[in-house]
Amino acid sequence: MAEDGVFTEAWVREFARSVAACESELTALDQLAGDGDFGVNLRSGLVAAVGVLDRGTADGRAAVPRRPRAAHEPLRVLATAFLDEVGGTSGPLFGLLFQELAAAARADGPRLTTHALAVGTGRGLAAIRRVGGAAPGDKTLLDALHPAVLALAACPAPTPPVRALDRASVTAWDGVRRTAGRSARRGRASYLGERAAGVPDPGAVGVALFLTTAVRPVTVLAPFLKAAGAPVSGRP
Amino acid sequence: MARYFARTTGSLVADALEGFARAHGDLVAYHPEHGYLRARHSSPLRRVGVVSGGGSGHEPLHTGFVGAGMLDAACPGQIFASPHNRQIFEASRAVARREGVLHIVKNYTGDRINFGIAAERLAHERVPCARLLVDDDLASDDPAVAVGRRGTGGTVLLEKLLGAAADRGLGLEELTALGTRLAGRCRSLAVASAPPTSPTTGRPAFELPPGVLEYGVGIHGERAGRTLADEPLDALVDRMTTSLLAALPPPPDGGLIALVSGLGSVTRLELYAVLRELGRALDGRGLALRRSLVGEFVTALDTGGFCLTLLTTDEEATGLYDAPVSTPAWRW
Asked: A GO BP term, please (chain A) (predicted)?
């Protein structure tokens, strides 16, 4: 199965399910290292995105054409939901990442490529840095995104996107762990100083979760499928 | 306990915007679905749309300056909160001209981020966009603070001068360069003898004993870096003038434009008296007050204080200041 719109739509839906399942944990993290609204904001963006995927747009046209659909379309829905509907600052900053991912996926054609993932996350990282002024190491979402961008860029072109995303998500979680040991210079935790020590940055957790949800169902299933002799698809 | 006249605290901004649109329907149109105000009339010579915005509670900033000769659109946020990037994005798309749109942004983290996100979105739509950051507040001029000086009273002067420059058909790059030069020649300083009242709690934003002034107060109820024992008005204005002039480049022909803005609960009677002292302070230094404007321009709810803004002017800037303008809060 190719990494087309079916793959990216399943990715967005899995991200939404994961965030819904751990919203209270995200909120608890953000209460320790921020103002406590991150889980709610992330969830509201995903509810809006899934709503569009389910219903089509308000004017009655399908936001995502039924079939065949290109990989960038569900990512574009995700981007617009986060840019338009989510309050605060970190939600719309996620929207910038999704916007660049969607644009890079669109440029590469109907199927999601490892190249598009590398280019899109790289441009997303640059856009978030331009707008927010933070740098990797400041204890923000960039601390998960930056290593993920490097990991994706290091994957040779023939690497299947799911394998590339798997590697990226591993490095993103390493980045999340490092944020716990840092004090913040920018963003939500910068107002708390030492009080946020030991707490991983919720925005970084959000990025790692996003990358993980693209591959988790596949990586969980893969050994079973292999054992059964079934082909391992790129579809979560 | 002080209180505001409002239907509910939460609806105050939306209610005020509806009323504002009713009062000034000949000059502005309100777009409630995207939350911005747009000028009904704008020079056809403009090649660039001019957009500003920021938290509410600073009226007449920014809504009062939408109209011919100043802003094409303004995006008001909730009280003391940045507008949403969608407001800015939609407003910018609506008023962009052939050469795009200029964002006039007060230097606060939330405003920078939301205008920045809107600019990123505009880039994806191929709408050229540039930003002029207004950072005129002397009180926050501390190299140790990464975010830099805040934006305050100078915003109004820059909106006026850049609006006039846009009317002359300047392109996006020229306009941004002019704005950057003017912003570098503009500094403000505010003092307060009474804090603003929080609309949600009805309590003062901070405690200030009688006989004491906050020297360098912010426009969101931020305390100043220091307090000062109250002193006669001439001495206070002279002190402020000294601080402002030390931070400004020397005027080429000794000319300045001044803005004296009440912060919310200071009478015009007092503000004109402040201008008298400013004029005397400048006379004493051999400097000329070429133009002056007195009233409420950038307020901070009901803060009991005033803000002095000085801009070193030249023939070009004075000409832009004098150009015609027709907005709810500034017209000639």
From this structure: glycerol catabolic process
Query: Between B89, B113, B124, which is nearest A131 by CB?
Result: B113
ipTM of the complex: 0.88
Q: Which domain holds residue B106?
A: 11-184
Which of B184, B203, B234 terminates a domain? The answer is B184
**Number of compact structural domains in chain B:** 2
Total residues belonging to chain A: 236
B312: phi then psi, degrees, rounded to nearest 5: -75, 125
Q: How confident is the model at residue A215 (pLDDT cuts 50, 70, 90)?
A: confident
Of the residues B184, B209, B232, the one at which a domain ends: B184
The verdict on a CB contact (< 8 Å) between A99 and B121 is yes
With cut-offs at 50, 70 and 90, classify the pLDDT of residue A236. Answer: very low
d(CA B157, CA B136): 11
Express each pLDDT in A36-81 by its tens digit.
788 899 999 999 999 999 976 555 566 665 666 899 999 999 999 9
User: What is residue B3's predicted lDDT score, i.e. its pLDDT?
Assistant: 78
In a domain, B330, yes or no: no
Which of B85, B124, B146 is facing A92, going by the closest CB pair?
B85
| Active-site pick, B34, B58, B62, B84 | B58
In this predicted structure, what is the pLDDT of residue A191? 64
Is B41 one of the annotated active-site residues of the chain?
no
Q: How far separated are the first and last CA of chain A, in Å rounded?
A: 10
Kindly list the strands in the beta sheet with B186-194, ordered across the sheet, starting from the edge strand earlier in the chain: B226-229, B212-215, B186-194, B304-312, B255-262, B288-295
How distant is the Cα of B117 from the closest Cα of chain A, in angstroms? 6
CA distance B279 to chain A (A): 41
CA geometry: angle at B113 spanning A44 and B180, to 5°?
160
pLDDT for the residue numbered B68: 98
Residues of B in contact with A131 (CB under 8 A): 112-113, 116-117, 119-120
The span from the CA of B106 to the CA of B102, in Å, is 13
Which of B103, B107, B112, B120 to probe by mutation at the A interface, max A CB count within 10 Å?
B120
CATH architecture of A5-57+69-218: Alpha Horseshoe (1.25)
Q: Which residue has the higher pLDDT, A62 or B230?
A: B230
By the 10 Å C-beta count (0-12 exposed, 13-18 middle, 19+ buried), B9 is classed as middle
B72 inside domain: yes
Q: Do A127 and B120 touch (CB under 8 A)?
A: yes
- The whole-number pLDDT of residue B1 equals 47
Q: In this structure, are B195 and B309 located in the same domain?
A: yes
